[in-house]
Amino acid sequence: MKFTEEKKIQDSKKFVLELREITKSFPEIVANDRIDFDLREGEIHSILGENGAGKSTLMSIIAGLYQQDSGEMIVFNKNVNFSNPKQAIEKSIGMVFQHFMLIKNHTVAENIILGMPGLVWLSLNEVKNEIRQISERYDLFVDPDKKIQELSVGEQQRVEIVKVLYRGARILILDEPTAVLTPQESEALYEIMKRMTKEKHSIIFITHKMKEVMALSDRITVLSRGKVMSTLNKKDTNPEQLAELMIGNLDIKDSVKANEYLKGAILEEKNKVRSISKIKKTNNLTLSLKNICASNDLGQPALKGISFELNAGEILGMAGVSGNGQPELTDVLSGLRPMTSGDYFFEGELLEDPSVNEMIDRGVGYIPEDRKKYGVSGGMSIAYNFLLRDLKNSNFCKLQILNMYNIFEYSKKKMNEFDIRATSEKIPVGVLSGGNMQKVILAREISRPLKLLLASQPTRGLDIHATSFIREQICNARDSGLAVLWISEDLDELLAVSDRIAVIFEGRIIDIISREESSVEEMGRLMTGMKDKVLENSI
Question: Helix axis angle, 464-479 relative to 434-446, nearest 10°?
């Protein structure tokens, strides 16, 4: 009886957003195919779908970044057709993007008010005070005077959230908002979302974390190949059914991919994903760091005495809120950034300011945090991106002449081996979905002889299938003897794949603990610096 009454109340809520037959095409692909979607007042409506399902395109249409080719959009009972984001903002629609929409050389305060009506009449000091109040209220602390280029990825995410809150949006689109937050910050955000819905705000929530979907959603819409597969009330569905719908029209019993989706969804929901890890420890020391110090791009200390060891056949997970020295650490290890002091031993040999080329030759692979900016050359073909680490291979280049046949055949082989979905190896890698782009990077890095893999946020923003595939590939490489430094803010992921976990805070290792001794709660506490004493020698 209670369930029926709640359902009636939910169904009686008025619509604040309606999409009818929305279609959007790009060259060689229909991103959105006659999509129907609606959002009620005071609800959290989650959208699920694998990478490339059309989620980002649809949200960009709602936010005014794209215009639909056909179809109708109704906001607060009025037909609209946005031609720019400003028009969406004026209709009380705000979006927190997975890939941040911030101007790097402007301050936090300037970014937050950019595009607002009456900008010339705003008092910047009053704006800063309001930003501080919002930051304190929601525990999303940002400095309004800092420039975006000075902020970590995590801090930039917080700026995007504060910007939407500052502008008073009644319809909020949150695209993977917890990707860079600690468990405590994520829980705080959940409470904020629930409080907003009680105040008649409406939220479109995009996430690949099934437990978030089941914990927060009122309704769930599943997209596959640009089409709506179903819209369901949370109480009428379960992770298994949602995983099936994400596959599309495949036979769930016969599809290997579907089984992978189901496995990923169920394991994530039950927190039993640790079975991925097959510990195969060796005594071969690959990496040893002793009191490594380094500065960031502004010349400020970023690493303050980092010490740890990493063996062949081991994954050392690294937990920490973004901006605590992780990018500088991977830069040092890959030869991109010089140390200011400390000792860097690679396979027992002391290195003196190694270059990028030297580390590539020594067998160091790198999956960077920002795949679009640092992981690929977006305008180059998939095939040419495979060559970026292998230009000295005589099968591809001899006497400075490229063997195009070998290059394309190799690319086709890798695309098949790593399930990279594209019409041709000759298309620009920049048009691929995030998951397929990440697979290109992974294939390029681990398909050559490696001793050490630096994996920074390797599954951030990816769907269940892509996440499962990439985890499995890296774990298999570990089982074959590869040493892996796996940096992630997804603590469930670190518990799933790591043999040991190091927690970094303000450029120092707070603690290194075995996976068996770890928990999300304990790591979340350590990520805030809550430990009596920072490890002097974290070996």
Answer: 10
Residues in the chain: 539
Q: How far apart are the first and last CA of the chain?
A: 59
Query: Sign (positive/negative) of CA torsion 271, 275, 277, 282?
Result: positive
User: For residue 229, what are its two tokens?
Assistant: 């597969």
pLDDT digits (tens, 9 = 90+) for 26-82: 877 889 999 999 999 999 999 998 777 888 899 999 999 999 999 999 999 999 999
Q: Which residues of the chain have pLDDT under 50?
A: 1-3, 8-9, 249-280, 533-539
Question: Which residues lie closer than 8 Å to 494 by C-beta, 6 or more apart?
Answer: 317, 318, 319, 486, 488, 501, 518, 523
Residue 282: the pLDDT is 52
Residue matched to tokens 């603590």: 491
DSSP 413-460: HHHHHTT---S-TTSBGGGS-HHHHHHHHHHHHHTS--SEEEEESTTT
Q: Provide the edge-to-edge strand list for the sheet that holds 315-319.
A: 364-367, 452-456, 483-488, 315-319, 500-505, 508-514
For the entire predicted model, the pTM comes to 0.67
Owner of token pair 């979006």: 95
Question: Which residues are 505's β-sheet partners?
Answer: 508
- Return the structure tokens found at 70: 């056909």
C-alpha 277/C-alpha 476 separation (Å) is 9
Q: Are 162 and 142 within 8 A, CB to CB?
A: yes
Q: 101: buried, middle or exposed (CB in 10 Å: 19+, 13-18, 0-12)? A: middle
